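Retro notes (design track)

What went well: tokenization of the new backbones is finally stable.
What didn't: we kept losing track of which sequence belonged to which structure.
Fix going forward: every design gets posted as structure first, then sequence, in one message. First example under the new rule, 955 residues:
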């Protein structure tokens, strides 16, 4: 039975019910039919006679009504308060308010993806669609699809799934990943031969991959099918694309610039002069800083300018928000995370950022620098000096003080723009709000009293639900700090007064919740707000107050599968000051740390289960607060809490964000009691960090601090000290030591029934055999790994197992290996597991480089080059360069292959070519410079191969 824990219903496949402890036993076919009928109704009342028909069909027994009540009672006993099953005449309804239904989550994610695609954010659309489609485990309502009560819903969900699959292929094409989209589109066309949309997308994808003839063939095949089956010609979109393909329209192969700018939630008001001026300033110099008081609209202006200037930057526009960082902290990890890159071996994170940015053309928006100004100024100054193609747009309450900085003070909104903003926000609160002669003077007075500051105007406009403009103007007239002169100081006092006024209007319980919200660094979902801000109240009461704060613009809500709530930084600073004055800070901080340590442990466990994707997406949104929790725990010497958090997060942070958390582990080792049960996992995390930096001596020394102790069961896969020692041995050529370790660990995991650990260790057994060139000996381990991984339903485990099997069969059965590598990549990418995604991508591209279409292989290898640049793994990048060299030799691009051969030898790496080493004079070259030159040459050669352009003549 379950108590009040979260319940998850699954209908996108066989019906199942789970809570935090695992599957719940619902019973046999009849109670399962009852539950399915209630779930199909999505919380609506289902009449009793319809439930009887669902359970027994057309011939119910005489006592069906009584038996139905018995089944209902049994189901209530299973679900209890987590999903109340209530009697509502003329039948029953199942409340899903506190539960999760995978079909509802699927539809929400598809809606979100389509909104993102409509706004041009195809990366976000792809992520949402991957998350949506991963929820499917088979046919919708599989065991009930032929039942009358479920047939319609099953058909509707199946149609939505097909549409989402087509959406995903379109997103891949829009992102320039057409080679990945082709197989999916071909399958859709085969399954739906008269559906024009996938056929049109297939034309685009084939043309974008350099196959014009195949693109034209797709059109002719569509035309023939439509003529034969329906007697019609293809519609206008297909006809127009056909003409563009014939004309070699260059727009068909254009790749959109990357970036991470958020979509605007509302229209941008005014600022035409400032927008034009800042755009011109960005053309004139490499650094522009928007300055002004909090609430002046610096961030909104920066994002608007960045969106308008996007076309100028081939490598896109990237937003790095610093508001969630602790005061005075370094900014390198935050900038790296925003760019989607990770620290490279042998480099600091700041050096990694500079190396990544140096050859690129992009706009970097660095928002909210004031509380970390020295560190932000130092990094921005280096970027300005050393990265000629990068332009920085910063926001700060004061200038950064960097050479070449153009300071652009953000002035108040003029009256006309301020009035337009007030009306826009007032209508968001009260749709029938209108500006007429009776209200215009009052609105003008409000805007004047608020010194034209956007945040203050939005707070005042939110009051239109309960007050008239005249009443708000009168209240503001009495505020003593308003209208105290001109300039930034006066405007700051005006904003503080506006926030104070809005705060004083709140009831005491809403004031208390507002103060408590200031403890969150990056926002929180309802469960976190309840657990940290007011655990003594009911969750419904907290939600009610939170909703009212959102209505009053005191809290910002962001919708999603789990809505999240946050304070704007200016309001958060005010909330912290009020919490301090009320003596609440210590209690809030302690509850914040305790909640997020518990959350980290739940997320760590979730990342090893079937819901890895959902946990990864949710936990990445909590990362700012996990960082804040560690900082607060360490500052307060709460070592138990700190080490528990550090031991829980490596799989989230290392595989998906960066290497920042390894520094946390290193910080703890000298001060944590070595007898702490989580100490070995903290040692493993710190040792893995040294391994990733390429500092093998430190990795070994650190790993040995754990002695013979192992992390407890369920610890993150990458936090085992013994594994780090084995990996160093494997890298340094001692395959036997690594194989002995992993064979022994596999036996231990098998005996203990630890399936996740068993998949991991069997994977490495297979890898060791492949490295020793005896791949066939790794086949039993790889097969067992796959069998065990499927039983876990964990995407990363399933990806690892497919990779292992592909690795040991790639020479004997390359087609099967390719399918396994592609599946491994898709599984890892869907859960944002970047490292496993990268090695699967690379092996697939390498296999195609030997056995497949050279153009497709070249595109795959290009993607891998970019991937390892972001992930920061130099070892894997050099391996990819070997594969590129081999492909170029295969297609007789001998000069390009010879250049890469020389770079490989110069870096001390093996080359696939049997050529003499080129003569070199002088000191040994810098390895990083050699790698950069090799990557640049490989990228140029692969692009020539994709486009069919001849290589330049040497000599």
């Amino acid at each position: 039975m379950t108590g009040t824990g979260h319940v998850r219903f699954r209908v996108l496949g066989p019906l199942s019910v789970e809570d935090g402890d695992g599957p719940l036993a619902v019973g046999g076919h009849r109670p399962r039919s009852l539950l399915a009928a209630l779930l199909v109704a999505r919380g609506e009342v289902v009449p009793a006679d319809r439930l009887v028909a669902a359970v027994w069909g057309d011939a119910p027994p005489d006592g069906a009504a009584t038996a139905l009540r018995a089944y209902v009672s049994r189901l209530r006993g299973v679900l209890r308060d987590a999903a109340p099953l209530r009697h509502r005449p003329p039948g029953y309804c199942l409340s899903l308010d506190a539960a999760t239904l995978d079909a509802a989550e699927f539809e929400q994610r598809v809606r979100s993806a389509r909104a993102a695609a409509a706004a041009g954010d195809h990366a976000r659309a792809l992520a949402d669609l991957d998350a949506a489609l991963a929820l499917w485990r088979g046919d919708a309502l599989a065991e009930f699809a032929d039942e009358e009560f479920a047939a319609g819903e099953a058909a509707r969900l199946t149609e939505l799934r097909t549409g989402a699959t087509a959406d995903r292929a379109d997103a891949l094409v829009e992102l320039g990943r057409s080679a990945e989209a082709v197989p999916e589109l071909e399958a859709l066309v085969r399954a739906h031969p008269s559906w024009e949309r996938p056929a049109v997308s297939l034309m685009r994808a084939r043309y974008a991959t350099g196959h014009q003839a195949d693109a034209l063939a797709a059109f002719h095949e569509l035309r023939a099918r439509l003529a034969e089956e329906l007697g019609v010609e293809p519609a206008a979109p297909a006809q127009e694309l056909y003409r563009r393909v014939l004309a070699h329209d260059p727009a068909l192969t254009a790749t959109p610039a990357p970036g991470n700018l958020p979509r605007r939630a509302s229209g941008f008001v005014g600022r035409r002069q400032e927008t034009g001026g800042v755009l011109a300033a960005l053309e004139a110099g490499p650094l522009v800083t928007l300055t002004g008081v909090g609430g002046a609209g610096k961030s909104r202006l920066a994002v608007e300018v960045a969106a308008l200037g996007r076309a100028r930057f081939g490598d896109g526009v990237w937003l790095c928000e610093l508001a969630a960082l602790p005061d005075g902290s370094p900014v390198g990890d935050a900038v790296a995370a925003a760019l989607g890159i990770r620290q490279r071996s042998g480099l600091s994170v700041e050096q990694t950022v500079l190396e990544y940015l140096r050859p690129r053309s992009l706009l970097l928006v660095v928002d909210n620098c004031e509380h970390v100004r020295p560190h932000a100024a130092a990094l921005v100054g280096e970027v300005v000096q050393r990265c000629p193609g990068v332009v920085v747009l910063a926001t700060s309450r004061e200038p950064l003080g960097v050479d070449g900085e153009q300071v652009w003070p953000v002035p108040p909104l003029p009256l006309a723009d301020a009035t337009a903003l007030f009306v826009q926000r007032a209508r968001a609160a009260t749709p029938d709000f209108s500006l007429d002669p009776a209200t215009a003077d009052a609105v003008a007075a409000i805007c004047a009293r608020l010194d034209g500051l956007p945040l203050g105007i939005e707070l005042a406009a939110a009051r239109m639900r309960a007050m008239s403009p005249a009443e708000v103007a009168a209240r503001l007239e009495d505020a003593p700090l308003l209208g105290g002169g001109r300039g930034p100081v006066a405007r700051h006092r005006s904003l503080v007064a506006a926030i104070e006024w809005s705060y004083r209007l709140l009831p005491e319980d809403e004031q208390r919740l507002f103060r408590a919200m200031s403890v969150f660094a990056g926002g929180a979902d309802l469960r976190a707000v309840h657990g940290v801000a007011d655990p003594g109240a009911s969750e419904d009461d907290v939600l009610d107050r939170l909703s009212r704060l959102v209505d009053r613009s005191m809290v910002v809500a962001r919708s999603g599968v789990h809505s999240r709530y946050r304070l704007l930084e200016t309001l958060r600073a005010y909330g912290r000051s009020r919490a301090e004055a009320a003596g609440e800070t210590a209690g809030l901080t302690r509850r914040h740390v305790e909640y997020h340590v518990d959350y980290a442990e739940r997320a760590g466990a979730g990342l090893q289960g079937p819901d890895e994707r959902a946990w990864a997406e949710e936990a990445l949104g909590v990362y700012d607060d996990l960082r804040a929790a560690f900082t607060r725990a360490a500052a307060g010497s709460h070592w138990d809490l700190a080490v528990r958090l550090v031991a829980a997060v490596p799989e989230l942070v290392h595989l998906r964000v960066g290497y920042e958390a390894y520094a946390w582990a290193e910080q703890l080792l000298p001060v944590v009691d070595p007898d702490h049960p989580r100490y070995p996992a903290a040692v493993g995390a710190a040792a893995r960090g040294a391994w990733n930096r390429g500092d093998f001596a430190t990795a070994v020394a650190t790993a040995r601090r754990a002695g013979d102790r192992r992390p407890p069961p369920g610890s993150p896969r990458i936090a085992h000290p013994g594994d780090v020692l084995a990996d160093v041995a494997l890298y340094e050529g001692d395959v036997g030591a690594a194989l002995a370790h992993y064979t022994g660990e596999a036996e231990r995991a098998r005996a203990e029934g630890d399936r996740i650990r068993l998949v991991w260790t069997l994977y490495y057994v297979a890898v060791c055999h492949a490295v020793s060139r005896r791949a066939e000996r790794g086949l039993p381990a790889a097969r067992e790994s796959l069998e065990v991984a499927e039983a876990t339903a964990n995407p990363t485990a399933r990806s690892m197992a497919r990779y292992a099997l592909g690795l040991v069969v790639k020479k004997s059965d390359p087609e099967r290996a390719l399918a396994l590598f592609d599946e491994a990549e898709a599984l890892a990418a869907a859960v944002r597991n970047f490292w496993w995604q990268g090695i699967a991508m690379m092996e697939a591209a390498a296999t195609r480089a030997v056995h497949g279409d050279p153009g497709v292989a070249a595109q795959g290898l290009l993607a891998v080059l970019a991937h390892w640049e972001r992930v920061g793994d130099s070892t894997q990048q050099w391996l990819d360069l070997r594969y590129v060299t081999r492909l170029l030799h295969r297609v007789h691009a001998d000069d390009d292959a010879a250049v890469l051969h020389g770079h490989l030898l110069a870096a001390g790496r093996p080359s696939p070519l049997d050529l003499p080493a080129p003569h070199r004079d002088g000191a040994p070259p810098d390895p990083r410079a050699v790698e950069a030159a090799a990557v640049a040459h490989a990228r140029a050669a692969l692009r020539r191969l994709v486009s069919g352009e001849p290589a330049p003549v040497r000599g």
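Added context from the reviewer: Confidence is low (pLDDT under 50) at residues 480-486.
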